[in-house]
Structure prediction request, 250 residues.
Amino acid sequence: MALRTQLVAFLATAACLLLAGTASAAFPNFSGCPTLEPGNGCIDIQSRSGNLNIKGFNVPLHESLEIRGGIKLTPEGDVFVPPRGTNGFFATPVPVPGGLLGIEFPIPGNSVLAIAELAGPASSLKVDVVSQTIRMPVKVRLVNVLLGMDCHIGTNSRPVTLTLITGTTSPPPPNRPISGRQGTISFGTDTLTFTDNVNVENSFAVPGATECGFGLGLINALVNAKLRIPSAAGNNSIEIHNDAALRVNQ
Prediction:
């Protein structure tokens, strides 16, 4: 009975986690954008597809990520201002191929969901409107009955640090340069839209898993073996196809 109660509590917590802070379907979505002075604006960036590669292990990202909030233009650079009560970074879960055991078969307890989280305050998220560069520290929560609710790749003190660009990268070896692109530009009355951007990054490192399996080191080791982590810079890459929109306050 105690085990059943714990399982029900776990599933209820997981459901709340998966339903909170989800990415938006409508584009552009400027809901919750803070009211800023004229000349500043609101920004919405939504992924349409993508792929994360960790030392040869691929995780499709699908339509799982969104950055939404206000943009304050200053001489020192663009300052991101999140909607009230959020950090402006929204994500939906994506399945980890093969689950916990690396087997593409519906085995009970095998499936694993990965949820990207901002590893720090909203001020750590940097968006350059002109170059469409996105800088952000992230961590990934892994959700599975055996892993518990605190299993992460990356932490606030040791995040996966991404600089996503639309240009060409200069990674350490053995990675080679890859290129993104700025999408098709459309002008509205007060809105600038870039459709089908590609942001890339392949110079980041990925740390090992922490707090998996209720603090049991064996489960951390299992996750590390499955995802081939820790993985040094030069062995990993990420590509995100996205749409971006900027609305300027009049």
